[in-house]
Amino acid sequence: MSIQNKIRVIKRVDTIVSELIQKYPRHTSAFPELVKLSESLNQLLEYLSHLDQLAANYTTNEIDRYILSINLNLDILKSELEKADYTKILKGVKVIKTILKFHPTKYSFFEFIVIWIYELIYFI
Question: Which end of the chain lies in a sparser environment, N or C, as judged by fewer CB atoms within 10 Å?
Fold first, then answer.
């Protein structure tokens, strides 16, 4: 259940990126980076979706690799997007980073409340 909350938030950020892909035409320099950011988010989603299938002695060290990829795309997009669009994506990625600090598979009611508050602050 805890992973489902994280997946829901990541999908929300991915829809924001998809909207920006529609907004920026193909010939702009932001378009390929937005596509790469969407791919990085989808890879993180796929990893979290398969996290339940891992054995009991799994590690979550792989998450850092996906976050580094997302951070690289964000750094490149900083100069290529309008400020309002960039801050939308940046806020979403901040929420993703914060919720991934919690243990990915153990469900806690506290984590659910924190995720709900972050969604309220950043997405509404």
Answer: C
Report CA 105 to chain centroid distance, whole Å.
17
The residues, ordered by sequence, that sit 6+ positions from 116 with a Cβ below 8 Å of its Cβ are none
Owner of token pair 């009611």: 109
Residue 30: exposed, middle, or buried by beta-carbon count in 10 A (0-12, 13-18, 19+)?
A: buried
> What is the rounded distance in angstroms from the CA atom of residue 89 to the CA atom of residue 72?
13
pLDDT (tens digit per residue) in 28-55: 888 999 999 999 999 999 888 887 666 5
Of 95, 97, 110, whose CA–CA distance to 2 is shortest?
110
Tokens 């009991």: give the residue: 56
- Provide the whole-model pTM: 0.80
Contacts (Cβ under 8 Å, ≥6 apart) of 66? 40, 43, 44, 47
Q: Which two tokens stand for residue 21?
A: 């892909």
Question: In whole angstroms, what is the distance from residue 14 CA to residue 8 CA?
Answer: 10
